[in-house]
Each structure stands twice: as structure tokens, then as C-alpha cells.
Write a structure and sequence with these properties.
alpha+beta; 5-stranded mixed sheet; 5 strands; 60s Ribosomal Protein L30, Chain: A; globular; single chain
Amino acid sequence: MKTVDSKTDKDLVALMEKAANFHGHLGPYLVIGVRIGQIAKRILNTNPRKISTLQATAKVPLLTPFSCVLDGIQVTTHCTIGNQKLRIEKSQEGITVYFELQNSDKALKVSVNPKIIGMLTNKISEGVSNKELAWEIVHMPESQLFMIENR
């Protein structure tokens, strides 16, 4: 996929390969979902014992490529449609994911910056490749991609 030098980069590439294998290809909205899942696990401090208590509600437009976010969330958080820990709600605009830990008051809201969605829409319409856009999102600062609120 991409050449790397450091262990961290190798771990990142391995995660992107895992997500792409699950989803079928690597694309920018899949990477957005992966990054959202990573944020939730980091901020809510989900260790292997607590990961089973994590639940997510994703509000996304139910159209590709936006819905690809869902697969990234599933790969990183183990909140899946099948285990009913991932609920999906249709959004007319924007992408927002709410996370909570069962039996806890810990919760998190992660929204994708609308400017990023606009930028991706423009670049996709210009013919920029999914893979190129995906790696752009991988390396973009979290603060540029998301609005994050602890609740």
C-alpha cells in the first residue's frame, strides 16, 4: 500500500490494510471512520475488557461514499451492526458519531468538519483517486478533521 520506515507507520499501514480488506477498498470516508473509532477508544480509554461496553450511534447520509464511515468505525471499535453496538441514523447533512460506555457517564461526540466533506466532494469530482485521498485523510491533523466534545 505505502512504504514506511517506523513501527508506528507500519502499525498505521496495517490498520488501513485491515480496514480496506473489511470494506473492499481504501477510501477517504473509510479512513474517517477509522480515525473516529481511534479517537473514541483513546478518549474513552477503552481497554480490552471495556471495549465490549462501548456503543455508538452514527448519524450519516445513507449514501456512498458517506456511509463508508460505518465500516471504519466497525473495524476499529468492534461496535458492529451485527452485535447491535452500532446504531445508524440517517442524516440529511454531515457526519456525527456519538459514543458511550454502558454503565458509565462517559460519552463522546465526534463530528466531521463540513469543510473536509466539501473538500473531498470537490476532489472526488475532479477525479482524484480514492487511495490518494485516503492517505491525505490519514495524515491530516485531528483538529482539522473533527470537532470533538466530551459529554
